[in-house]
Design a protein that fits this description.
Length: about 500
């Protein structure tokens, strides 16, 4: 089987922003407690944060992290989680039927962000919350002092403002599972007033509207179009949430999930641009994929023995080799839409449907999906090329459009004068792969990586890293002039890094 990608430096998609490689920490399960925060852990620092987890997060280089939810935020009062920790009230978390001790709040999370080399995307409560409460947390976080809430922050130990730039206006408000679920008109009105009040305090902040949470909802697309009638002039981003699963055990269909993400992104862009046309606006709304991942094995499996406990082990997926190909392909879909998709947050970062897992009191370890995220984060920053992919295709399910066995993308880092080519072979046989680099001048191959395991069901654990990214012997790839040739193993993720010896013409 042959697969080929054609690249030309004159044809680009757009810049892949660093913020495409974001994470997500919600107060759910063990994401916070025994995830990032465990004061009794052997690696815990003076603030109670696990340094072994911090090291793994720093390695992923996540510039932004969404916080504190998620469904959790729609019943959360941020004021419960500030001030002396021993005076904070424990509250029922009605989103996940747990007990929230409020030991970690915005001040603690800001400390963790500095340690983990990330910055927050803070979600305000528009379920049970109010515009006034949202305005007050902006005051608390971003004003230097001289007002009630900014001085309260200083009293609580944060003398300088947190200066949070990115804010989400609620979470999944179109879903009837959401506490405080709203119609598009209700959400549009409250989000508009909230945005107005937040920007009175700090006009420099960037806001993300809560887009439709699922393409399967009857309100999908209509929700986005209707809320943007209220919010188009207020916000910078519209959110998308997209999870993938293989509940019907159809591997061909599952591996085609990134093409479903393509369609979702394009549908939401169309909704935004329709409102842009109606309003005769010169402003363009960008997209934030602020929840995405593979999630299906634990979805809907509520264990009532965990109800109303603190940090119960829920939604702890164990990812396999097939999930690597879907996560890796989703990252390539994101790159292919880099002109409009400007932020993304894998859900989540630790323990809950996450690339990083921990044992309470024990190890922190990397899941299989850690590796495609790691390598794409490292090398997928720069100008995304508008690639043409040529390979055989297959029909993943009756009625579906054909999908190519090869999914590929290329990113030109102009500062380093390097090109990273990502290639995923979704076939059960070896693929003879080539990349035609057009008018890029005198490239040389400096690094090659692959993620592959002959068993698609293979997984990692605390004691065994069965799936990792491994270096490919550079002699197994051939570069003649401006054409790269290599063999891609069946069901494999691959990356080739090329150096341009001279600046491109």
């Amino acid at each position: 089987m042959n697969g080929k990608i054609y690249i030309n430096r004159n044809f680009t998609v757009g810049k892949a922003e660093d913020t495409l490689y974001g994470g997500f920490i919600e107060h759910i399960g063990r994401a916070v407690y025994s995830g990032i925060y465990e004061p009794s852990h052997p690696t815990a620092d003076k603030d109670g944060f696990r340094q072994d987890v911090i090291e793994l997060v720093r390695e992923l280089d996540m510039p932004v992290t969404r916080y504190p939810g998620g469904n959790f935020v729609s019943g959360f009062d941020w004021k419960d989680a500030i001030g002396p920790q021993n005076e904070r009230p424990a509250r029922p978390d009605c989103a996940w039927k747990s007990i929230e001790p409020n030991s970690v709040g915005i001040d603690e999370f800001m400390k963790w962000c500095k340690k983990a080399n990330t910055t927050p995307i803070y979600a305000v409560n528009l379920g049970t919350g109010t515009p006034k409460s949202a305005q007050e947390i902006v005051e608390y976080c971003n004003l230097p002092g001289g007002t009630y809430w900014s001085d309260k922050r200083k009293q609580n130990g944060s003398a300088t403002p947190h200066n949070i730039k990115y804010w989400c206006l609620g979470n999944e408000m179109d879903g009837d599972w959401q506490i405080g679920h709203k119609t598009p008109q209700e959400y549009g009105r409250i989000a508009h007033e909230t945005a107005k009040m937040m920007k009175i305090i700090d006009g420099s902040i960037k806001l993300c509207a809560c887009g439709s949470s699922s393409g399967t909802l009857p309100s999908f697309a209509l929700w986005d179009e209707q809320i943007m009638q209220y919010l188009y002039d207020d916000v910078d981003y519209l959110s998308i949430h997209r999870y993938f699963g293989n509940g019907d055990k159809n591997i061909a269909k599952f591996l085609a999930s990134p093409e479903e993400l393509d369609r979702r992104i394009e549908d939401v862009i169309a909704c935004c641009d329709a409102v842009k046309a109606q309003k005769k606006s010169s402003k363009t709304i960008m997209i934030s994929l602020d929840e995405w991942n593979v999630w299906y094995r634990t979805n809907g499996k509520t264990d009532e023995t965990h109800a109303w406990k603190t940090a119960p082990p829920i939604l702890e997926e164990n990812y396999d080799m097939a999930d690597v190909l879907v996560v890796g392909g989703s990252l390539l879909s994101m790159l292919d839409h880099a002109d409009r998709l400007k932020m993304a947050c894998i859900a989540q970062t630790v323990n809950v449907i996450a690339p990083i897992m921990t044992e309470k009191g024990g190890k922190a370890w990397k899941q299989s999906i850690y590796y495609p995220f790691l390598e794409t984060s490292r090398h997928g920053r720069g100008m995304v090329m508008r690639s043409v992919v040529d390979s055989p295709a297959y029909t993943p399910a009756p009625g579906r459009e054909p999908v190519k066995y090869l999914r590929a993308a290329a990113v030109w880092n102009q500062e380093k004068n390097e090109i990273a080519i990502f290639a995923i072979n979704r076939a059960a046989e070896t693929m003879d792969f080539s990349a035609e680099l057009g008018d890029f001048s005198t490239p040389s191959l400096i690094e090659a990586k692959e993620i592959h395991h002959p068993d698609l069901d293979a997984k990692n654990s605390a004691d065994a890293q069965n799936i990792t990214s491994k270096s490919i012997d550079l002699h197994l790839a051939e570069l003649k002039g401006n054409q790269l040739s290599a063999q891609l193993k069946p069901y494999s993720w691959n990356m080739f890094l090329l150096k341009l010896q001279n600046p491109a013409r």
